[in-house]
TrEMBL record:
It holds the Pfam family Phytase-like. Residues 62-369 form the Phytase-like domain. This is Esterase-like activity of phytase family protein. Keywords: Signal. Residues 1-34 form the signal peptide. InterPro entries: Phytase-like_dom.
Length: 384
């Protein structure tokens, strides 16, 4: 009969064998990566490219400079904002895609998407007067559940017009309200003679609403003047504002930093040009656009998560940002790999359902009103 001490050693030996068995078995279990918990499982498949000729006109206006787009699902139409500083306006567009539920086999040519313009609306102030020339550089647009449109302007430095985010009546374009901005976003010179605020042509390019419409997110194309390192080195952080809206006046509740991809060797322009909210949990698509003399335009789509990002609201200057955690992002698609030339892609929106019942994703280009540069629109299939 074993003694008590021998029994103790026996049980310790059994526990050791059991622990080793569990450890060895766990090695065969699928390992969950941190990124797979942080980001959504998405795949983008290219569907088609559609263009509007560079000489397209509508209602006595030149159609161009389309830098933002948003989808009106009930009416199956888009609203695209033009960045024409002389006449701020948006166009109503209809994208005719193949029937997602065809009752008959498709006929020849019916699978080719078509883009048509159906309306034009001038943006007006609260007195119903059209916004005067050189008072706005409109870049972002989003449709609210209340059937109004949110529009962002980068501002116009030469006329000392500050950037803004405003809400407009969808039908007549009249301004309804303005959203508050921190004072450190307004271009100005400090008492020390240092520039502060949004830099010229690098303001609020990105604008998106959460699917429920109660949250608005807007981001600058690049860093504020006071956030740039004096030696020109170091990372570039865009500022991303987070509003609560829908009942009463909109309230700015948070601000985060978005890390811009480093400039390529030959890049002369690089910026965050659009955000698109994927859900109510802080996931987005972001569109970054580059331009280089050697390679022309480029663009990359990232998935973005706000999880764990530091709130920097009220921080006039970033200064030592070693303790600040920016939003996290993951490359989803480098659009240069599509195999054709890209234009100045700036607008991003979901669109109508495709034949596989997946959502479509639409990216539109700002042709800068240049001759021989048609307005480019790319369509993708979004699979999850």
């Amino acid at each position: 009969m074993p003694t008590i001490s021998r029994l103790g050693r026996w049980w310790r030996f059994c526990l050791l064998i059991a622990s080793l068995a569990i450890a060895l078995t766990s090695c065969n279990l699928p390992q969950v990566q941190a990124a797979s918990r942080l980001f959504l499982d998405l795949r983008l498949d290219f569907v088609a490219q559609v263009t509007l000729p560079s000489d397209t006109t509508f209602a006595h206006t030149s159609v161009g400079g389309l830098s933002g787009i948003t989808y009106d699902r009930p009416r199956n139409q888009f609203y695209a904002i033009s960045d024409d500083r002389q006449s701020p306006r948006f166009y109503t567009l209809r994208l005719n895609l193949p029937d997602p539920n065809p009752s008959e086999p498709s006929v020849s040519g019916s699978s080719i998407p078509e883009l048509e313009i159906t309306d034009l609306t001038l943006l007006k102030d609260r007195s119903t007067n059209p916004i005067p020339p050189n008072q706005a550089d409109t870049e972002g647009i989003a449709l609210t559940p209340e059937d109004t449109l949110l529009v962002s302007s980068e501002g116009v430095a030469q006329s000392e017009s500050p950037p803004w985010i405003r809400e407009f009546d969808r039908q007549n374009g009249q301004e309804l309200r303005q959203y508050p901005l921190p004072n450190y976003f307004i271009p100005q010179m400090t008492e020390d003679g240092e520039p502060m605020g949004v830099r010229d042509n690098l303001g609020f390019e990105s604008l998106t609403l959460s699917p429920t419409g109660d949250r608005l997110f807007a981001a600058t194309e690049s860093a504020l003047a006071q956030d740039l390192a004096r030696d020109g080195q170091g990372p570039i952080y865009c500022r991303l504002l987070h509003y609560v809206r829908g009942v009463g006046d909109p309230i700015l509740i948070a601000e985060h930093l978005y890390p811009l991809e480093p400039d390529g060797e030959w890049d002369i322009a690089n910026g965050l040009v659009e955000l698109l909210a994927l859900d109510n949990g802080g996931h987005f698509l972001s569109l970054e656009r580059t331009f280089s003399v050697s390679a022309g335009f480029g663009a990359k789509l990232f998935q973005v998560s706000l999880a764990g990002a530091t709130d920097v609201l009220g921080r006039t200057r970033l200064g030592n940002n070693s303790q600040v955690r920016p939003v996290q992002k993951q490359l989803l698609l480098d659009l240069r790999t599509l195999g054709f030339s890209l234009d100045n892609l700036e607008g991003l929106s979901f669109g109508p359902a495709l034949r596989d019942h997946h959502s479509s994703l639409v990216i539109i280009a700002d042709n800068d009103f240049q001759p021989q540069r048609p307005t480019q629109l790319l369509i993708f299939d979004v699979a999850d």
